[in-house]
Amino acid sequence: MGLLAKVAWRPGLGRRGVLTLKKFTREATPEQAKSMAKSAAPSTVRLAKRIAMSGLCSRREAEKRIRSFDVTVNGRVTADVATTVDVANDVVSVDGRVLTRTQKVKVWMAHKIKGELVTNSDPQGRATIFDRLRVMGLTQHMMPV
Fold this sequence. Notes:
By secondary structure, the chain is of the alpha+beta class. Helices cover 24% and strands 25% of the residues.
């Protein structure tokens, strides 16, 4: 199924014949899908989000570091949490460490086998889905959802 281009409301009959508004959608044309995909990836983001995207810390922790003058953008120290940065062009560093460009998030789906737990570790030593994924070499930066 493609991207949904438009969500609108149309009149329709509800329960007991009462006139209601019903939601309908239609699929996007290839041109609409391209333009929607371009607009979905913002080129500028807030500084705290950029730091969190690098995997260094959470967004809240990033805001604390910004307020404590630990963050520089293009060589200038900033303490303003509302600062926006260009993801592709601005150089952001935290405590002198330059943040690398982030990779796109990859979503993995694994089917749970009967008897496995969906948790990173089990104190009772029962089998977990991550035990199986470790054998396959796939557990780095993975979390259950």
